[in-house]
Amino acid sequence: MKVIHKINELRVELAQYYHSEQSIGFVPTMGCLHQGHLKLMENAVKENDIVVLSIFVNPTQFGPEEDYEEYPRNFKKDFTKARETGVDYIFNPEVEEMYSEGYNTFVEVEKLTEKLCGASRPEHFRGVTTVVTKLFNIVRPDIAYFGQKDFQQFVVIKRLVKDLNFPLKLEMVPIAREDDGLAISSRNKYLNKREREAAGVLYQALQKGENMILKGERNAYKVEEKMKDLIKDEELASIDYVKAVEPETLEDIEKISKEVLLAVAVFIGETRLIDNFYIEEIAGN
Amino acid sequence: MKVIHKINELRVELAQYYHSEQSIGFVPTMGCLHQGHLKLMENAVKENDIVVLSIFVNPTQFGPEEDYEEYPRNFKKDFTKARETGVDYIFNPEVEEMYSEGYNTFVEVEKLTEKLCGASRPEHFRGVTTVVTKLFNIVRPDIAYFGQKDFQQFVVIKRLVKDLNFPLKLEMVPIAREDDGLAISSRNKYLNKREREAAGVLYQALQKGENMILKGERNAYKVEEKMKDLIKDEELASIDYVKAVEPETLEDIEKISKEVLLAVAVFIGETRLIDNFYIEEIAGN
């Protein structure tokens, strides 16, 4: 496994694969690799000849009040995990390598990015779509892997790839969870013991919503309200959003029919956590 | 020479070249091919194994009051010219093929696009950078060719390519001119006989500016004023802008030193024409 810091160096390394039939799998991350990332890498290794992992804490997707500086970084551990999983290249550029002097180009997906997390993190998705465009052009993968935990991010990137005609496939990999159901996230590190216990409430609320739907509830508002009630009972939790939406457009729905995305964003103390259930093929539809 | 209307069909055709060492040259146009385009195609044919010409009148780069509907189209003549020049593929998509339902992604280069033409055509460059990004992803060229007449467009696309890490080279091809110096443009077709004569004033103003600089004038404001005076003497002409700017950043300058871009945009009757002189290596600097 090679670690590469420079764009041009990575291009030179990868050039040999473009002129062959070998496929390149790509896993873009901000590092601090956990069980969720491992699943992405495992799938990429299984399905491609060559796998590139990028580790880059992208400043432009953090808001001015957000945790860019504190975001956990641990390259040494990441290196070991990536090597054990069978990754071929780690691309680990400096900020100056990605955004050099005079940088001024931005890629924006409209509408979709105003919903859910976009409402409370207005610049976030512009940062994501811009850096993902850059990384796609640098790596030129055949398949890129993203986690379902960031469901909205996946929907936005799907739109980006379709609209800008990127010649690649996207794969969404299911959420990895702790024993109590908490979605694994680098930000879970911020939680103290009491908060960690409280954080289980996101999963409980999603289960509550799913159970209501499986039992026949079709009123999206009622489902959301019951989920909110459950979260409000946890005193360390404060809700950013709790939503039942159409999974492709992320539009609000009144009546749940074929499929639905239950998505939640909740502050546990100071830490903002997100989670979702994507419920496909709802019975009786 | 093949004419292709569908993105996927072009991808299939071009796939064979990606897995070989053959280079792809790309000439993006809005059709109505003239002497300027011929130079682009000739260079592309000379320098590459395969040449793709795109003909697409891109609606998103026209303002609501602009000439999208009237913009001249003549596929039959374009076809003959392209074939004679040695182009291999014409990519000629419908609008719906490029912007399908739910389209919502935009690529924007900031700052540079606010200057010169960007001031009077605020949405224009966003349309250009978005469609060029799409075309680059569809064609995946090794070299893309653009005309110097749209100097600002070239500077903006250079920024786009650098910032978004497109793995390709750009080539700027000099302006083709009529006998009286008028830069050849598809929009020259809009001019009546009297206007056609008046249109020579753009070139005369640029010559005036260049002569002043060659004779030692270093005050940008004085150069601009003399150029403006010359244009104002033509009663069919009305000035959009007349500028001496730094060629890379398009920033205003006070003192002309190493190099300068003289750029003009002038309405001749209802028709807006642009032209420029790029003066490199000014003596005594």
Write the layout of secondary structure elements.
Two copies of one chain form a homodimer.
Chain A: E1 2-4, H1 7-18, E2 24-29, H2 35-47, E3 50-55, H3 75-85, E4 89-91, H4 95-98, E5 105-109, H5 117-120, H6 124-139, E6 143-147, H7 151-163, E7 169-173, H8 193-198, H9 200-214, H10 220-232, E8 237-245, E9 260-268, E10 271-279
Parallel strand pairs in A: 1-4, 2-3, 2-6, 3-4, 6-7
Antiparallel strand pairs in A: 8-9, 9-10
Helix pairs in contact in A: 6-7, 9-10
Walk me through this protein's architecture:
Chain A has 285 residues and is of the alpha/beta class. Chain A contains ten helices and ten strands. In chain A, strand 2 (24-29), helix 2 and strand 3 (50-55) form a beta-alpha-beta unit. In chain A, helix 6 crosses helix 7 (151-163). The longest helix of chain A has 16 residues, at 124-139. The first copy, chain A, is globular and about 55 Å long. The mean pLDDT of chain A is 96. Chains A and B meet through helix 1, strand 5, helix 6 and helix 7 of A and helix 1, strand 5, helix 6 and helix 7 of B.
